[in-house]
Protein 1
Amino acid sequence: MLEIKATESVREGSIFGQISTMDHEQLVVCHDQATGLKALIGIHNTVLGPALGGTRMWPYASEAEAITDVLRLSRGMTFKNALAGLNLGGGKAVLIGNPSLKNEAFLRRFGRFVESLGGRYVTAEDVNMKTSDMEYIAMETRHVTGLPQIKGGAGDPSPVTAFGVYMGMKAGAKKAFGTDSLSGKKIGVQGVGQVGKYLIEYLVKEGAEIIITDIFEDKLKEIANASGATIVDPNVIYDLPMDIYAPCALGATINDQTIERLKCAVIAGGANNQLKDEDKHGKILMEKGIIYAPDFLINAGGVINVGAEYYGDYHKESVFAQTEKIYDTCLGILDKAEKEKIPAQQAAIEAAKARIEAIGRVKLPF
Ligand SMILES: NC(=O)C1=CN([C@@H]2O[C@H](COP(=O)(O)OP(=O)(O)OC[C@H]3O[C@@H](n4cnc5c(N)ncnc54)[C@H](O)[C@@H]3O)[C@@H](O)[C@H]2O)C=CC1
Ligand SMILES: O=C(O)CCC(=O)C(=O)O
């Protein structure tokens, strides 16, 4: 594989510039006038298997923003799937527009595009996409997973994602505090959506002191009532002293504007692509002595779940057992980073690439 760098601003305006900078195989542009579908499918790497990754729907401010998002997200899936030990490559899709655009025809048209790729890309849920949306997509393609249980699927993967994040958080705590107990630890959860709300359940059971924030006040009140968490303003979370910061909303929250404000010992959360510039911000976190549990390593529970469903080999216990291994993998990566004096993100990417390269050699023709 080429040496890859995900920079904050890849060469804007040049599609090939961007996909070569991040070493993608394919970027698919899908359009349908009748339904208003505007979709991008990013296939980063298929050495380990079909590129599996969810579809996100978002009202992107520009096409450039959507392209950058799909490229960063699909690249992250390559490393996530490799480190989780899955025989899956990395891909992701984004649907441009307000989620209210979604209807049966819109989703089925998207399913036709997924089908046209012949299994090189397998879709599932991401932000603003639900198991019920997968049902419509499944009417047009077999290459979809994350279906509702009543339709023979494994249902919402978020509880498994949250369990993996919890495992990664405990590994980060072990490294930072010498114990993986979260009892009494002050933990800030940013985003109380699907992943955040299930993560909070684990933190409550451990007796952590929880701070929560979200842009939707109703969700916050409901979760605060159930968990005893303290609500804070979304802009204030970066300035509060806390033991662990758990980003569980959208990506790039660790950036030039926030990184100097963070007063935590550990960062461990479910959001994809937390570092806006992975080289620069990964290095600054290391210099500040903040333990960073790489996002794509610790949020792999969801893809472990939907991957098992896709291969028709779904057993809840084994999915949770595989996800539990995130604790050991994360500790191993944090140790490697410390020993080699490199950022944890870099250590994790190196480990993922090593597996892709080794298995790629196994697959050479006879
Ligand atoms: N659901 C899953 O199984 C997986 C999710 N992820 C990632 O985890 C993250 C969260 O995913 P979900 O929980 O499924 O999405 P979600 O849409 O259910 O939850 C995200 C929450 O973040 C909140 N939010 C958005 N912007 C915010 C801001 N500026 N400040 C505070 N809160 C904000 C939203 O209001 C929402 O409640 C995403 O980055 C997703 O890609 C990664 C792996 C699997
Ligand atoms: O969890 C899912 O639904 C699929 C995997 C994925 O897209 C992710 O891990 O970001």
Protein 2
Amino acid sequence: MKITRVTVTPIAFKDAPLLNASGIHEPYALRSIIEVETDNGHFGLGESYGDAAALAVLDKVKTQLIGLDPFNLNRLRAIVKSTVAGMAPAGNSGAELAPGSHASKAVSNAYSAFEVALLDAQARYLNVPLVDLLGGAVRTEIPFSAYLFFKYAEHIDSPYEPDSWGEALSEEQIVAQARRMIDENGFKSIKLKAGALDPEHEVACIKALKKAFPDAPLRIDPNGNWSLETAVRMAELLGDDLQYYEDPTPGLEGMAELHRRTGLPLATNMVVTDFDEFRRSVAQNSVQIVLADHHYWGGLRDTQMLALMCDTFGLGVSMHSNSHLGISLMAMSHVAAAVPNLSYACDTHYPWQEADEEVIKGGKLSIRNGCVGITRAPGLGVELDRDQLAKLHDLYLSCGIRSRDDVRQMRKYKPDWKTVKPRF
Ligand SMILES: O=C([O-])C(=O)C[C@H](O)[C@@H](O)C(=O)[O-]
Ligand SMILES: [Mg+2]
């Protein structure tokens, strides 16, 4: 089997005005859709970042894949490495919460984008679900958590009608957001994205969630925007309300000290984002749970290796997400299905995406009882809807955004918004 065609299509889709430690989401999120076709009529799909820096690498790699056997992933990795080595590193200002946009992740994120598409092609050729190439499913229902955000009711200078979620700044509004997300998807656990408003208020929202959903495991994620002292103080207020405390304070040293002082289980997708950071984290017991993300951890197989390392060193594993569509959701689900020690429900932004903005046939995938199901359909189990792909590509062309920048967007609301961290 040989690759005869590779297409990388940048797309944009509506995104809600979600608040985070950096600033606020822009009206559109960017992704890339990867298609690989083979000489025997098979194809494979992938989804990755759509920022200019990521697209530049994907575009340079794709032409070199013509003639490659999709089973030859070692050759893919060599091509990606040599391509990135020949390119100037890109800056990542404003996109600090999208780890895949960091220049240091150029190899792992481009490799991952194509690895998923090649594994999908392999699996379709063999007529097996992709998870079978990862050792088989240890579970077929993959648990995800409700991912709550503080948000404004609408975007500034809004290019479209306000979303249906409304404002979420108060305790009551956050509880209402959780209730709707749980009613619609059956989620069993809840994550609150924090680091945006006053820490005492964010903790009060956790308390309100605890009261409203006493059985749901809770997490709070201030994205490193709390000083060590603030994180210790909030830990005292939180008591034992949390399942885990996600990236409250910056740095491996800060997290290690916080764990020493509070004993709370700390999770991260910020201080352990590659194997070198993993090694340094283990040496000082900085975190107890690693949130994997195949998009920047170097694909599905490297994510399995990360999970094995977590098992070796007694750490828990779960999954991080950025704004994404269904191909990514299925890739996350297939690898999660093949990770025996997945110890927590995974994160996903998927419920925030609009129903008519999916690129797969049949529209948005369902999350039932808080889970995404894996079937015996070949590959990732999804097909591309070409009309939708064309529509979202047109949106990419017209939206004017070429790289995620939550800081730039927040300065439209607050012109003197600073990037100082930790803010609280
Ligand atoms: O767990 C996390 O840190 C994230 O999901 C990072 C994301 O960028 C999130 O903060 C967002 O979408 O604003
Ligand atoms: Mg996080």
